[in-house]
Amino acid sequence: MRERRRGLGRGLRVLRGLAAAATALVLAGCGAAVVPDDPDAQPRPGGTLSVGVEASWVSLDPLRATTYVSYSVLLTMYEQLFDLDAEGELIPNLATGYEVSDDGLTYAVSLQEGIEFQDGEEFDADAVVTNVDRMRDPANGCSCLGEMGVLEDVRAVDASTVEFELNRPHAGFPVAVLASAPGMMASPRAIEETGGDLGARPVGTGPFELVSEVADSSVRVKAWDGYRDPERPYLDGVEFRVIADSDSRYSSLASTSIDVADNVAYNWVSDAELDPSIRLDPQGAAGSSFVMFNTAEGRPLSDPDARRAACMAIDPELMDDALYGGDRLTGQESPFPTGSTWDMGEVEGYARHDEEGARRLVEELGGLSFDLQLTSSPDNTRAAQALESQWGAVGIDARLRPTDQPTLVDDAFSHDFDAMLYRWRGAMDPDGNVNRWFNSALATPDAPSSNFNLVADEELDGLMLAAAAEPDPAQRKERYREVSLKLAELTPYCYLWGADWMRMSLVNVHGIPARPDNIMMLRDAYKVEE
């Protein structure tokens, strides 16, 4: 196995830079102005931020929070009980702190007082119970059910204290649940008045409130004047614009048509480094990009040897060199991204690239044919075409099935695919990278669930539960290595690279904090305008 890559291939940028100056001149000729930089800028009120995102949000309801874009949009209007700092450590938000019982089964969470939702409803312990009960009700189909399975009960002790009773110890519960989608608080009044359809009327405690939504196109929010911090938000408003093509996102930023371009393809890095109006803000990789397989009986990839053949045909580093100039974080062999705290390095038994071995398996299987679903962005299309070529070289017939992101996510949850090119934003607690995806209780062919692959293995279940319960970080990592070894045997995924994220903004945009989960938080954002 070649050396694992952990960062940008800067040596290759020298070659790329030969063409970058010409690109900058073309953009300048189109009327792009140089944006003045002020390194000593201080927060100031006013202005609207225009953000170019790669795809549509799934919904404006936290029940459907799954993608990076969804979280970035939702967290302008809603807030979570806890948040994460730049190192991924838990910090108070709507909650002020928690205490956990000696047996690890009860978490007592204290809440801030005097906070209201955007419709005037009071935020208190009863509101938390309403939201959590809604999230954990299987009838509501929350994408978070994998995380909520650990919760036995939730109750209001008094107006500012909530108790969460677990059915098993879970050392990462505050991070995995209370600082994620289940911790997003919506107005109980809005939940009741909308019949539970917050996608049509999102009402939270966040710094911004909804102005308009145009499906698959844009979301506009404005500053809420009743926000709990009278100094924030600084911005008057934010507009999220769907610009599916990464090249178009970059050109929109370079021409100053937008202020922030999220997840720009790495082939634009050298151009951006020569543009004095653009700031690069690489976000690292909390998540992963991978090919996942439906393991259900009757599917083309139900046989583990078929899945191993498909994985062994893929050379992620060759794809990285050809498509991204060697910039991606390759070398991942477990659900825990390269360079992360829980990175497992090489995992014994993982189906690494072996073209001849893949060809032999395909011959033993008597051939292999399947559909690969993907979002229809140019970047994913190029990656899928590279996969199709490598599979074809070993006798695998793969048919590409492009679609839009909301449909792809729906197909994943309903298990309606053979193979799928997918990206998971990653979880800050390691349990969120395995249990929600592979728990046998969620292997429900006739009902949507986050066990997309329909993996059902009792040994794996036991390993995941033991790892989640372990409070000692070093011991916990070793338990997750055991999980990784079992997953290598089952082969539900072929890992391509970490979901490393290149955000770019105009240099007059400030206050967007670095986060290990790549989510864009705009409460503290501001613009310096002449």
TrEMBL record:
UniProt signal peptide: 1-32
Entry-linked PROSITE patterns: PROKAR_LIPOPROTEIN
Protein name per Swiss-Prot or TrEMBL: ABC transporter substrate-binding protein
Domain Solute-binding protein family: 89-440
PANTHER family, per database record: D,D-DIPEPTIDE-BINDING PERIPLASMIC PROTEIN DDPA-RELATED (PTHR30290:SF38), PERIPLASMIC BINDING COMPONENT OF ABC TRANSPORTER (PTHR30290)
Entry keyword set: Signal
InterPro entries attached to this UniProt entry: Peptide/Ni-bd, SBP_5, SBP_5_dom
One Pfam family it belongs to: SBP_bac_5
